[in-house]
Design goal:
Shape: elongated
Strand content: 5-15%
Number of strands: 6
Order of helices and strands: HEHHEEHHHEHHHHEEHHH
Number of helices: 13
Structural class: mainly alpha
Distance between the termini: 62 Å
Largest sheet: 3 strands, antiparallel
Length: 249
């Protein structure tokens, strides 16, 4: 029988996780969580609500299961929560930007170390997404059904991106302008920032993104077992990546 004290501690841990998404080793809740009864109760709460706990030596994280969660954010919820996502088209493009970012930091150990130390500028990310979309454009010409199996409207994504300006001349206006490519990248990175997964530096100059350890843990503990992530990662490859993957080239 679970004691009232156990339930109280487990609820405190779980609701802190719901609010903060991450609890690190310095938190009193971190110590409380590893009491076997408390941990079992937290895992039960997580399971019941369709969320998922990632444990690592220095922190615990709460993640929403890809399907069947009480907290699953479908397009409508996401739109309410993040006003910058106006249309499904932009939503798909934002997903592509985020996936391109994840795929570029999740290539190999060297890429992880480099991005942790130096970060990736918005302009480097724009070039990466552009290479990717030009690659998709070329594939579509040869295979018009490309993307259908993966349920991605490639034509729409490619066309929307191709006709977006990279930038506006006035940075002040650009910040608010998600209709430019850099504006779209800024919106995408803000989503990761509100989840506590990245740090954005030099916002007023040439912004760049530094991934936090939480992001690498999330990729490792969650996405690597998730087939759709691996499938997306394959789609994120451009010719340049294939050379990078093969050291003999």
């Amino acid at each position: 029988m679970m004691s009232a004290e156990t339930i109280k501690k487990a609820s405190a841990v779980y609701f802190t996780l719901l609010k903060e998404k991450v609890i690190d080793e310095n938190s009193e809740h971190f110590q409380a969580y590893f009491d076997p009864d408390v941990r079992q109760t937290v895992l039960l709460l997580a399971d019941e609500s369709g969320t998922y706990i990632i444990e690592s030596p220095k922190r615990i994280q709460l993640v929403v299961q890809p399907t069947g969660s009480v907290f699953a954010t479908n397009f409508t919820h996401m739109k309410e929560k993040h006003k910058q996502i106006e249309t499904k088209k932009h939503f798909h493009l934002i997903s592509v930007v985020i996936m391109a970012f994840l795929a570029s930091i999740d290539r190999n150990q060297a890429a992880k170390i480099r991005t942790k130390r130096e970060g990736i500028s918005y302009y480097a990310l724009e070039r990466r997404v552009n290479d990717l979309i030009m690659n998709w454009d070329a594939i579509l010409k040869a295979k018009p059904a490309f993307g259908e199996e993966e349920k991605i409207d490639m034509k729409d994504v490619v066309t929307t991106w191709k006709y977006m300006e990279v930038d506006t001349d006035d940075y002040g206006a650009k910040k608010a302008n998600r209709r430019t490519r850099i504006g779209l990248i800024a919106s995408s990175m803000r989503l990761l920032e509100t989840e506590g997964l990245i740090i954005i530096l030099d916002r007023d100059d040439i912004p760049k993104v530094i991934p936090k350890q939480e992001l690498f843990e999330r990729i490792e503990y969650l996405y690597h077992d998730y087939d759709r992530y691996e499938m997306f990662k394959e789609l994120m490859k451009t010719e340049e990546d294939e050379h990078a993957e093969n050291p003999s080239n």
